[in-house]
Write a structure and sequence with these properties.
- This protein is an all-alpha fold.
- The chain is 88% helix and 0% strand.
- The chain contains 4 helices and no strands.
- Helix 2 (38-74) packs antiparallel against helix 3 (81-117).
- The radius of gyration is 18 Å and the shape is elongated.
Length: 156
């Protein structure tokens, strides 16, 4: 099999995992938080944390590695404007995602403590969730823009 096509397949597959897991876990977290049920929030946040480690993290590492390798094999200039925009957008998504992972852990732990003591979900968990949402929107928008750049490769 052609190494370029294999690498491109891996790049597309990992982008699908990264984007799909991100949307899926975000939906689940929002849905769980809407219930206000501590046990649901704890359970879903626990699953979201695991999904991020199993799926999102490896895909997020594979993406830039395969992307740079594809750039090299295809003979693109590393400093082409559309690639510079891609790097900036991917970095934006990562810089939003990293604190989101920490917030998910905190929400999970706060819900776990509330569940163990029979207390309601603390306000701090809701504040963490609002920040989580505020970071998720630019991360999502950045990845949508990266997909657009990958398909269109504009010359700006």
């Amino acid at each position: 099999m052609d190494p370029y096509l294999t690498l491109r397949w891996l790049h597309i597959l990992s982008s699908t995992v990264l984007f799909g897991t991100g949307i899926g876990t975000a939906f689940q977290m929002v849905w769980a938080m809407r219930t206000g049920r501590v046990e649901t929030i704890h359970s879903v946040a626990s699953g979201v944390v695991v999904a991020d480690w199993i799926f999102t993290t490896p895909a997020g590492v594979i993406q830039p590695l395969t992307g740079l390798w594809l750039i090299h094999l295809a003979g693109y200039d590393l400093t082409a404007p559309w690639l510079l925009a891609t790097y900036a957008l991917y970095a934006t998504a990562f810089l939003c995602w990293a604190p989101v992972v920490v917030l998910q852990l905190k929400i999970r732990d706060l819900a776990g403590q509330a569940l163990a003591t029979g207390a309601p979900l603390p306000d701090l968990a809701l504040r963490h969730f609002r920040i989580w949402c505020a970071l998720g929107v630019p991360a999502f928008a950045a990845l949508v823009a990266v997909f657009w750049l990958m398909v269109n490769r504009p010359g700006f």
